[in-house]
Amino acid sequence: MEKNSLASMMKPITKVLNHNIVRVKIDAQEFHFESADQTEFEWQIFLIDNAADFKNVVQVESEYLSDRHQLELTSYYQFNSDAAGMALFNIRTHQSDQDFMINSINLTDTGLEITGYNKINGTPIKNQRIILQNRTTDGKLDYPVSQTMFKGMFKVGIPLTDIPQDSVGELFIRYELHEREIVQRLIISKSLSGQSIEADLPGNRVITIEKRFDNGILVKEFKGASLPQKLIAAGGKAHGVLDVCRMVQDKLNLARMRFLFKAGHSPYENTTIIFESFGGRQVSDSPYAIYRLFQTLYPGIRMVWSIDRSQKAFCKENQIAYVIRRTSKWVRLLEKSQFWISNARFPSWVKKPNYVTYIQTWHGTPLKKLGLDIENVSMPGTTTAKYHKNFVREANRWDALVSPNDYSTQIFRSAFGFNNQILKIGYPRNDELINTQPDEITEIKNKLGIPLDKKVVMYAPTYRDNQFAEKGKYTFELPFGLDDFRKSFGDDTVLILRMHYLISNALDISDYSDFVYDFSNYPNISDLYLVSDLLITDYSSVFFDYAYLKRPILFYPYDYHLYKEELRGFYLNYERDLPGKIAHNSKELLAEIHHALEHSDMSANQRFMNFYNRFCAINDGLSSLKVVNYVMHQIESGV
Fold first, then answer.
1. Spatial contact of 350 and 261, defined as CB atoms under 8 Å apart
2. Which of 143, 509, 519, 599 has the largest CB neighbor count within 10 A?
3. CB 601 within 8 A of CB 608
4. Was domain 446-617 assigned CATH 3.20.20.80?
């Protein structure tokens, strides 16, 4: 139903897939009509069950957010959600065919960077060139678009040293579509909030970006303020800064750390986002993918990582703002920030203010039972009832939960007792798997010290609950012989290990350093996927992500019956639903490795592709962007 005109349209469900999923295909062109006073169409979506004696109507909630998809030069559509989390299908018509919408524009230390989309209704546009035209002299600077940011997106940089002194320039794009050359003015509809719009150059030169009333973009170069003028301006700001510092100091002195969460903080004036990965033990995973895109598109937003002290060196080396967990400063930043983005749970005693939007990216597609679905919790320091209660209480602090597929969505609802919004957009960390090019994989191998002339086998087993020995001590040994592996594959293959952080220090591989690499503490597991020709795992959910690469996967569940019957159990049928072969002992494992390394592309394997279509097909390489846009929509609308 269209919200403004109350027009309605019915589409029959023509296909019912397995796992209680229905599919309806629509043509976006059908969802707008000629109206003298309407150019924006906002469709709500309902499911109607025509039973024999009654009609059941249920509104559909939003599990999918998209960026704008250009239908024609003058119209676009996108999927959104309303304030209640219900799905909206938006179409905008009667745009000017003289305008081209970009996604972001920023000034870096050396260049003017622009990102935008290079498709219209799915058709790639060709030979894009960005033009900076001087409004005074009509002189033009012309730059080809040669860099792809994501599939469907371009990125281009203009050197700041090219921009003429004392000039005002306007940005245009020239490209080819359906054999026709088109020139359009670049525009940006959203505000420039969060983007970097000023840069200082040597010689007291300043470059700024300004947005015009008609959404056009001006690039201005001018001489900066003199030193006396800067000192006067700084003096005017000093009093306010000192007042803020005193206020913060007063708050910190009010109570000790354990009472700070009850201090009743107010949010920062400027938007602040806190990122955390695996309880602060890493700067990684989906939160890091989202953070990096925020840094590119909206570097003006304040972003801080919540970390353990072990991550200080990494943050300093990469110029990442951070706060140490469980310090007074950490409490203050958490309580005054407007957004939390995490892939794991915060401690139950952390208070979430009502102005915080808490986005939970989670950290894997569930194979093993989770949350309320675990009937007997054997983790140290808790009971089953306490674990269930804490899990549900924590989960329902999440305002939005990222899901990679329909399968996960259904499990998250039941296992977490989760009643808030689900964003079914794929995991942002997997964007890298879709967008990375072969030459970039070579760079990663060089960085990791992996020989370029050898194949790479990755072993990434799960952590088992029964590996806990006593507090601070965990047990583990490899379930296959490294001597056997070296004898079979050592000449042209290397083995990389990715163990759970709790047991990674329990391994001694010092005698095998010529072909075994332990990357258990390497922060970005996607890099390890990319360099690997074969994944070996058991019950870890890593194979859901690795499947994006359509490379072979082997399963080595050497303790399958114990794990299935005495530990957590599974959601999938382990023998039937996996995308690769199962080896039950080390002899079978070595034989299957031989076979898998000879069949590196699984695209023609029907069993594998059935799995891929069920669990991976939703991710288009833009998941990070969708989360960024979700946050920016909240900021723009003042939610």
1. yes
2. 519
3. no
4. no
